[in-house]
Amino acid sequence: MAAFAAAVLTAGGLVVSAETARAADADIATNGGFESGLTGWSCTSGSGVAVSTPVHGGAAALKATPAGSDNAKCSQTVTVRPDSAYTLSAWVQGSYVYLGASGTGTADVSTWTPSAPSWQKLTTSFRTGPATTSVTLYSNGWYGTPAYHVDDLSLVGPGGETGQPPAAAPAGLRSSTVTASSVGLAWSPVPGATGYTVHRDGAPNLNVTGTSTTVTGLSPATAYRFQVSATNAAGRSPLSSVVTATTRPADGGGNESDLPAHALVGYLHSSFANGSGYTRMADVPASWDVINLAFGEPTSVTSGDIRFSLCPVAECPNVESPAEFKAAIKGKQAAGKKVLISIGGQNGQVQLASTAARDAFVSSVSKIIDEYGLDGLDIDFEGHSLSLNNGDTDFRNPTSPVIVNLISAVKSLKAKYGADFVLTMAPETFFVQLGYQFYGSGPFGGQDPRAGAYLPVIHALRDDLTLLHVQDYNSGPIMGLDNQYHTMGGADFHIAMTDMLLTGFPVAGDTTKVFPALDPGQVAIGLPASQQAGNGHTTPSEVNKALDCLTKKTNCGSYQTHGTWPALRGLMTWSINWDRFNQWEFSRNFDAYFGS
């Protein structure tokens, strides 16, 4: 452990000895567990990728593949102190795997193994030269050999002269959404921190860049101890206080609402017809796990009085009778399906601007649920239904009446119907992911007040929320966590948009106001079922690439996700009718992918 210079307080002030205080030994490698993809790393010729298997610890490891004249060298440069001792180690797997450090200012070092069919630890050490302030860490394979793997790489020694002290221990660690296999965590930001490490039961588990994450792969009905440390250029901070969370039993409950591990959600045009034709409830295939009745609409924009009725015979000649419709709903429920009333849609503007409208909403929605024997509610507020008043700048404490009254109304419905009440939401990207850049009218006014307006609703109801399926269609380009714009229609858009929900993000760039990650079991990807259904149709092959990346960390393209989420709940589509029109392409692809 490096020594700290003695200091004494004298009448003249604080006097420090001639020896400058040195940073304590710490692991100063960046993202050595590859939990944040290749963040901090550079691999020659694109030879490296973060994978979810095999791993030594956590949920990711490096896979690098030599080819031709490229030995798949992956490296990073770290700040060090002159004339100081360091130990470099990593767990490796494969043939002819090398680990080393260059630019040490003394003798560069490396170590290797000719064969590591299972995980093997490589370790080497070095001392920096009298003027050395940075070194390069690297791993590589050998030309023409198969891929090698690296995990849990560390460089232990004093942090470099950075002009800043080591980061403080994070405060405010708390658990959020808990399922049978995951625990959501959030904490307060640490000034100057460049990243955070989550420790599970005393051991490092994953590295993240934000102030929230979801720890997955846990066992049901098990208590876990979590702590978090912060990292800056001077090294890793002390650990935070401990938070204990117990996962739910394997049989689910709470906001999981007995959904299958991977669920297919679809909207059924029940109150109107369009070019897709009318589909009777009894004719909806068994593939669909959640059926949202489209739509319940208000008697006026601000009344809060929601009405629902079946499509008129003149418009839908094959519509069933109300009795047949209700009987078919019971048949779906007997088969384990959920049937919800969806409120809003493109034409159904709903603004609960008064407490009277709030109360009318609760009363009228309850009447629909009771009349048809439904399982819950889907909120599909679009257009100008939700917006933020000037000065409403904190999603954690909203003040705009249309937001506050909606939250209150949904909580009342949840309290009335109990734990089995299914709550889903289908916002557009403008109301959610755009909040990474813009929130409401902004601190100085002038922005679109609808930007990010769903965030306070989602956040306030996250413990009651069964599913969030953002509409990844009819959208303009949206900036992802890589600070690049992503355009709808391909796997990249769904990967980037979903990564934001599962990682969390600072709202309007304010790192003191971070929207926490949702549990993967609460998230489904929303897509149009056919080219006729909406802009941004995604082919089955691109849908599968997005699922591969998010659940397996393969086929990710150029975007690097901040985790791997095999518990991602599934897909939503507009709509069941359009899928039928398109020969059931969407649902058949879902069934094939998840083995239904």
From TrEMBL:
> Where in the numbering of this chain does the GH18 domain appear?
262-596
Q: Where is the signal peptide?
A: 1-23
InterPro entries per record = CenC_carb-bd, Chitinase_II/V-like_cat, FN3_dom, FN3_sf, Galactose-bd-like_sf, GH, Glyco_hydro18_cat, Glyco_hydro_18_chit_AS
Ranges for domain Fibronectin type-III = 169-250
Superkingdom of origin: Bacteria
Keyword Signal attached: yes
Task: Tell me if Signal is a UniProt keyword of this record.
Answer: yes
Return the SMART domains for the record: FN3, Glyco_18
Which UniProt keywords are given for this protein, alphabetically ordered?
Carbohydrate metabolism, Glycosidase, Hydrolase, Polysaccharide degradation, Signal
Q: Name one Pfam family in it.
A: Glyco_hydro_18
Which positions, given as ranges, span the membrane?
Answer: none
**Enzyme Commission no:** 3.2.1.14
| Listed CDD domains | FN3, GH18_chitinase_D-like
Family of the protein in this entry: Belongs to the glycosyl hydrolase 18 family. Chitinase class II subfamily.
PANTHER family annotated for this entry? ENDOCHITINASE
Q: What is this protein called?
A: chitinase
Q: Which organism is it from?
A: Streptomyces camponoticapitis
